[in-house]
From TrEMBL:
The gene is murD. It is found in: Cytoplasm. The lineage of its organism: Bacteria, Pseudomonadati, Pseudomonadota, Alphaproteobacteria, Hyphomicrobiales. Belongs to the MurCDEF family. It comes from the Bacteria. This is UDP-N-acetylmuramoylalanine--D-glutamate ligase. Its main location: cytoplasm. GO terms for molecular function: ATP binding; tetrahydrofolylpolyglutamate synthase activity; UDP-N-acetylmuramoylalanine-D-glutamate ligase activity. It catalyses: UDP-N-acetyl-alpha-D-muramoyl-L-alanine + D-glutamate + ATP = UDP-N-acetyl-alpha-D-muramoyl-L-alanyl-D-glutamate + ADP + phosphate + H(+). ATP binds at G121, T122, N123, G124, K125, S126, T127. Its EC number is 6.3.2.9. It is an enzyme of class 6 (ligase).
Length: 475
């Protein structure tokens, strides 16, 4: 835990008692603050009370006593309408902040300049965050990994000169962190997202820009027009002590960090291409397949380089990265067949990345369909040997696939996994891929994509016995 001492002896309103909210409450209490916590849900309030957190209905509280309102990131600050606590805080002149802001204040007060790598972007930020942490750990560094990736930032050990915090930040968290000033700030990419919470794409991009604007080293993508413009603006207005470097996963750059072919390079400004420094290779990095992961790898290598890692340490980190669960996760191999859990692919855009990364695919697909269905994936149908339909989307997806590629209605994941495995091993592909990349939400049959992916993993573990039985007991 990181005790929040910067609010010692002060009264703090806290709204939202999920995982990060409870962690924040305990960190404030440990630091000596008087916490007045509330949640709209009875479950959250009961959980907090059972853990000794004081409850205070903020709708009727005396707001003049509060030094701050700490808002959980999932609560609207501006759009579509501010949460009811927001106008109460503003009317009383009470600042509104989040848990990452509390961490930043502790760092500034007690460990100024402690290594702090903050990562944001629309896509790939979890993979990039986990890859950076893995690379640094493999190199022997003391790493604390958390934030939006899972572990609340205040549940981590406190900042220190010998410890590197690697923190994924959502736009909601950045919006509540006015003093965000990481050692290394990373902005991977931007595409329209969370517009319901930010109002416009311009507002969304402006929030994301704040993470790199306050960084000592700003690593900014150049592979989309939004981040390209942000990087150019930052470079033109950089503070004397600030370094702004471009990063690309798609092409060689005149300077900066980039992937060319399957290799990651750093090229210094003014140096010719032949003097570019080779940081590592993606050949053999099975958890980093696909063009989207080339971008993630470029940013991770850049962060490692800026943290002082040797080229060999960066290369090792790329090759040994195991990947994140449910994101093109290799969960098993049976004879020639590789089984890949991409349950996180809950829409067509996400499934596209997996389909573009493999061939000879036996595709398990379906669930609760998103708008647009799988029609955008038609250019990848040539990579698919057969599809196995599950869940509520089966009828719609069958209409799209009809006449384009073979498919089978399986209804449930266990049936689909078994049929796909048997077909993959019976046919002649050198390395058939049984791919769960549903392009759908899970809610028709599973509570979330994690449970769906975990179920697939367990089903794969049980396949050898099923395959043996199908063959009449022959292994």
């Amino acid at each position: 835990m990181t005790p929040v001492t910067t609010f010692r002896d002060k009264h703090v309103a806290l709204f939202g008692l999920g995982g990060s909210g409870l962690a924040t409450a305990h960190a404030l209490i440990a630091g000596g603050a008087h916490v007045h916590a509330w949640d709209d849900g009875e479950t959250g309030r009961a959980r907090a009370a059972s853990q000794g957190v004081r409850l205070d209905d903020l709708a009727t509280a005396d707001w003049s006593q509060f030094a701050a309102l700490v808002l959980t990131p999932g609560v609207p600050l501006t759009h579509p309408t501010p949460h009811w606590t927001v106008p109460l805080a503003r009317a009383a002149g009470v600042e509104i902040i989040g848990d990452v802001e509390l961490f930043c204040r502790e760092r500034n007060a007690h460990a100024y300049g402690a290594p702090f790598v903050a990562i944001t972007g629309t896509n790939g930020k979890s993979t990039t965050t986990a890859l950076i942490a893995h690379m640094l750990r493999e190199a022997g560094r003391d790493v604390q990994l958390g934030g939006n990736i899972g572990v609340p930032i205040l549940d981590l050990e406190p900042p220190s000169d010998e410890r590197i915090h690697v923190i994924e930040c959502s736009s909601f968290q950045i919006d509540l962190t006015p003093s965000l000033n990481p050692t290394i700030g990373i902005l991977i990419n931007l595409t329209p997202d969370h517009i319901d919470r930010h109002g416009t794409m311009e507002n969304y991009a402006a929030v994301k820009e704040r993470l790199v604007a306050g960084a000592e080293v700003a690593l900014v993508g150049v592979d989309d027009p939004y981040t390209h413009a942000i990087g150019a603006r930052l470079a033109a207005n950089a503070r004397p002590e600030q370094r702004v470097a471009p990063v690309s996963g798609l092409r060689a750059l005149d300077w900066g960090f980039y992937v060319e072919g399957s290799e990651v390079y750093y090229r210094e400004l003014g140096h010719p291409p032949e003097e570019a420094e080779l940081l590592g290779a993606l050949t053999g990095a099975r958890a980093l397949r696909g063009a989207h992961n080339a971008q993630n790898a470029a940013f991770a290598a850049a962060a490692g380089w800026e943290c002082g890692l040797e080229d060999a340490e960066i290369a090792k980190g790329l090759l040994t990265y195991p990947g994140l669960p449910h994101r093109m996760e290799e969960v098993g191999r049976i004879e020639r067949a590789l089984f890949v859990n991409d349950s996180k692919a809950t829409n067509a855009d996400a499934a596209e990345k997996a389909l573009a990364s493999f061939a000879d695919i036996y595709w398990i697909i379906g669930g609760k369909a998103k708008e647009g269905g799988i029609e955008p994936l038609r250019p990848y149908f040539s990579r698919i040997r057969k599809a196995y339909l599950i869940g509520a989307a089966s009828d719609d997806f069958a209409r799209t696939l009809d006449g384009a590629l073979p498919y089978e209605r399986c209804e449930t994941l266990d049936v689909a996994t078994q049929r796909a495995a048997l077909d993959a091993l019976a046919e002649g592909a050198a390395e058939p891929i049984v791919l769960l990349s549903p392009a759908c939400a899970s809610y028709d049959q599973f509570p979330n994509f994690e449970v769906r992916g975990d179920t697939f993993r367990k089903l794969v573990q049980g396949l050898p016995a099923i395959i043996a039985a199908h063959r009449g007991g022959k292994p």
